[in-house]
Amino acid sequence: MSKTDALVGRLVDAGFGNDFVIRCLPDWLDSESEASESVWLQVQLDLAQRLSIDPYSLLDPRSPLKLSGVGTPRFKHLTLTDREQAAVCAFAHGLTRMLVSSMPDVDQALPTSPATLRSALLANKGSHGIGLGEVLQIAYAFNIPVAHLTVYPARIQGMAAMASSTIIRSRARHAVFTARRVSHSAQLTFYIAHELGHIALGHVNGNDAIVEDLDTSAEGDQNQSSTDDEELAADRYALELLTGSPEFHVTHALSAGSPAELARVAIEAGPILGVDPALLALCFARSTNKWGLAMASLRKIGDPNRPAGRIVNQALRSQIEVGELSHEEVSYLDAVASV
User: Fold this and answer.
1) Omega before 271 within 30 of 0, i.e. cis
2) Judging by beta carbons within 10 Å of its beta carbon (0-12, 13-18, 19+), is residue 243 exposed, middle or buried?
3) Using one digit for the tens of pLDDT, what is the confidence trace for 76-104?
4) Rounded distance, CA 282 to CA 268, Å?
5) How many angstroms separate the CA atoms of 146 and 308, rounded?
């Protein structure tokens, strides 16, 4: 067995997915690289940093891997083994550290009042609502990187989004990660706004993380967060930011309506209310449970931000200082959050 095969096996045993581990390895790694003690040492140290692994445990092939600084993660509506949970959080903290280290270190906290942010954005862009570009603008105004994951450290394909925190120079820095492939960018807009709510309200500090499944589609239990105070608060934050009301409801009588009719009403009402029409359709579904009708209407409304995940990752690269990252770190970012 080669050194690389043995290393992959140890990481898989620690909870990381096999395909994910292979994508994390440098593309130039070969038998000649393995034979060089200095090169092989650097490969291991780089992996330890990216995946929040105690380097001493990684360098000793007889030692079980120890994940460092993973805090107290909370998993909402996702079923993972303890090892997989630790691996997911170790990955998130490693990626958070890498991204925030390549951004300005500005000590400016995200406001706890989303109304302040909404007023500022609408004053600048008129009354057309807050969409994906605007929530990304908010995140980067407060030095919070946002990445859409295209490779997963474990079985988290069902994850919608994650808010991660890590300590750098005695201060908590945050990042938001999304993972689910969405039908419309308005869904991703809500995910990001929801995670920003967790950050603004102090739900993630130190080396914490919140990893969750969120529903903005017909699949899943729409009442899943009704007894979770943190989730209710983050939902209210997102709704107030995106609509102006923390308890926004759309109950227009469309019992016999069609997707085209809902799309028409949303397009007409959106500018009046200062709410993105696609989000209006999703809020209608949230209020009435008519998800099939709403999801079909999104196709009629259209989406200027397709594919949404790629736009998120393109924005990420425009905001970080890529020159602050090594070649291996850039390759790693291209693997886990490709454009």
Assistant:
1) no
2) buried
3) 877 777 788 888 888 888 899 999 989 88
4) 15
5) 12
